[in-house]
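Exercise 7. Predict the joint structure of the components listed below.
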Amino acid sequence: MFAPTTDNELIRRALDGSERAWLALIQRYEKRLYNYALRMSGNPDDAMDILQDCLMSVYRNLGSFRGEAKFSTWLFQIAAFRCTDYFRRRRREYVDDDTDTLPDPNAATMPDASLDTARDNQSISSLMQSLSPDQRQVIELKFFQHFTFDEIAGQLGISPNTAKTRLYAALEKMRRVSPVSLAAGVS
Amino acid sequence: MSTDITCSDARLQIMDLVDQPTATFDREVLNGHLEHCEACRTTLAELWELQAMATRWRDAPVPQWTRRDAFFERRSWLPRLQIASAVASVVVLVLMLSQVQVSTKDGLSVSFGHGYVGRQELATQLRQLRDQQQANLSASIARLSNTQAANNQLVMNTLLTRSRDERRQDLSNLLTIFQDSQARQSRQTQDSLQYLVASQVQDRRDIKQLDHALRLVATKGTDL
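Solution:
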């Protein structure tokens, strides 16, 4: 009876000035974006900054979205740019051997999460933080956002083979940093 | 003829396999390579493990934030108020120019722009008002002067009465002191006289005893 409103319909109404449509659109994607940013930054506060920065950028550029690709693809392309900006601003080089000092990404946002879940998220986050930002983005887009290598290549402005090479390099890095994690699962 | 591929090519195909399990490359060739290449087998296993690991992530809830404020400015009522104020001013101006008069059955009458008074008449009304104001002022000053005089008289009478009472009280006190002093002196004089009388009586008694003793001595001397 009430068919769910499509992204394109919400975008059209938002461009016509509907605040409600815009808020509905961002609420549809904000959790996915926030967790993306959380895995990329490893810090809830930074993740929130990236989320807001990304959504503000989407809001300003919504008129340039032509609907040729899926909105989620366009959205994560902008999120990838914002994350690149974030890492450039922070000038945070990934650390090879000091993953214990990383903040717990669940500490501020999942107080009621079960211990196992919190431990899984913490382990995944630690593993992600051991990678370079470029490698992290490929892992994120491939395994968490389920984009194809062609889509990842389009979003990051690289070739599909470069994306695959980055993924392989990420595997090697993970194997060096935490061989147990990959051999027997992160938990 | 060898159908084996290099590890580099095998890795790309492994990636394609992860990307699309139904990829169109020759699976037999890849399988042949994997059978004897432990490194590529490990890579494939790790990719599957990475995929499984991603499913173990539990999405964290988004912290509370005010979405509307982040994107939209709050609407202010001030512009609407200013417009309403301007419209009201225009309406009143039109009513005044049209000299509209509104009356109710209760006797309430509101008129806009009526009651124009000429300059001469206005000057006369002003003069009358000024005279009236002057007369009122003079009457007030006279009333105030009379009240002031009556108050002064009252104050004077009160002061005189109080002064007279105080003098009378002083004289009364003085008289009392004088009478007390006189009574005290009278008592002292009376006491002195009584003492003198008593002394004289005692002296006379002593003289009689002395006389009696002398006579007794004289009588004894004659007998000897």
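Discussion. Chain A touches chain B through 49 residues (CB under 8 Å).
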